[in-house]
Amino acid sequence: MIHITKKTLIPLIPAYLLLLLAIPAILHAGKGKTFKAQPASRIVTLTAFTRPRVEMTLVSEESARCTHVYADRGDTIPASGLFAKLDPTFIKLDIIRLKADREKLQADVDYYSKEVGRYSKLVSKNTAAQSELDAYLRDLKRAKAQLRSVKTELSINREHLTRYTLRAPAGWKVIDRYIEPGEWVNKGEKVAELGNFNTLLVPFAFTVDELEKVRSLGDITLHLPDLDQDVKAGLERVSPDFDPETRKINVDLEISRGDFNFRGGIRAELDLEMPDSGGSVLVPESSLVKAYDDWFLVRPDGVRVKVLLLGTQQGNMRRVSSRAVKPGQEFLLKP
Questions:
Q1: pLDDT in tens, 201-211
Q2: Based on C-alpha coordinates, what's the Rg of the chain?
Q3: How far apart are alpha carbons 94 and 83 in whole angstroms?
Q4: What confidence score (pLDDT) does residue 189 get?
Q5: What is the C-alpha separation between 214 and 249, in angstroms, rounded?
Q6: What is the dihedral of CA 26, 29, 31, 37, to 10 degrees?
Q7: Which domain holds residue 206?
Q8: Do 322 and 308 contact (CB within 8 A), yes or no?
Q9: Can you name the residues that pair with 171 across neighbouring β-strands?
Q10: Predicted local distance difference test score (pLDDT) of residue 153
Q11: In Å, how far are 282, 307, 335 from 311, measured between CA atoms?
């Protein structure tokens, strides 16, 4: 038989009181509203600079003295495509000589053709020797061969003459030029650098996850901080390989429209919302319980989980981190 005296009863009273106070809380655990932790995200800002859609080096195909240059650095090539001209004096003189040779040989061909026809009739009547006909046939063939050679050389020189006028794609801009009027230009020498600035490319280097995120975007928006405006861009080119130095994939975005002067070197920023690599999650502010200097989440069974409060995100949502908290786990909304 247990005897409870006054001395033994007094220490037991606080313990009984704590148990009685805890019973309602234990019975109520698991009956409150719950939520599922959401994976947190972070904004990754990538920066690149605009460049022309295509660049081209204009090279002289002839050797001659430069007489005119029609476009300087920064100018737009006109609709005619005219950029510069070289002195065509000698090639024109050569064409005149070939034309004279062509006329002379054409006269020989006409003469030998008539003689071949006349001697063919005489040989058929046995009034001329076959050897004389063969000689005229030989001269006719030789004259025709020489005439074909001269005509071919004349066509070549006429083609060379067109190349004494240096042309570039209309609408392109001159990035740099290397020749001046009066300067001698050698065949194969660079005369200008040109670029197609009608559309701009913005080269980025993406990870695989970043590239998939960009592909999933309906519209790609680039921010131009130097101009304080946003522009729409499209996915233009994706390299099938990766850069071994950065271990990323080279991708070109294209800007085809915008209310600004299209040029290279404009800074462009791309913001991507990516999953937090640290494994943090988003929870409602009401689900956090503070005890002393620590923060806790409460599971439906009443167990508290210590978390690290990282910051605010999306209104009343808070970003927290803990090894014991994973996306999709349930916690009390208002513990």
A1: 999 999 998 99
A2: 44
A3: 25
A4: 96
A5: 12
A6: 180
A7: 44-53+196-275
A8: yes
A9: none
A10: 97
A11: 10, 12, 20
pLDDT of the residue at 23: 42
76 located within any domain: no
Q: Are 1 and 246 in contact (CB under 8 A)?
A: no
* Sole residue written with tokens 């920064």: 74
pLDDT of residue 199: 95
pTM of the complete model:
0.68
DSSP 142-184: HHHHHHHHHHHHHHHHHHHHHTTEEE--TT-EEEEE---TT-E
Write out the H or E segment, with its range, that includes residue 98.
helix 89-124
Q: Which two tokens stand for residue 41?
A: 């995200």
Each residue's pLDDT tens digit, 148-197: 999 999 999 999 999 999 999 999 999 999 999 999 999 999 999 999 99
CATH of the domain at 260: 2.40.30.170
Whole-angstrom Cα distance, residue 39 to residue 287?
16
Count the domains in the chain: 3
Assign 321 to helix, strand or coil: strand
**Rounded to 5 degrees, what are φ and ψ at 176?**
-160, 155
Helix (H, G, I), strand (E, B) or coil at 80: coil
Residue at 7 is within a domain? no
**Both tokens assigned to 123:** 């040989």
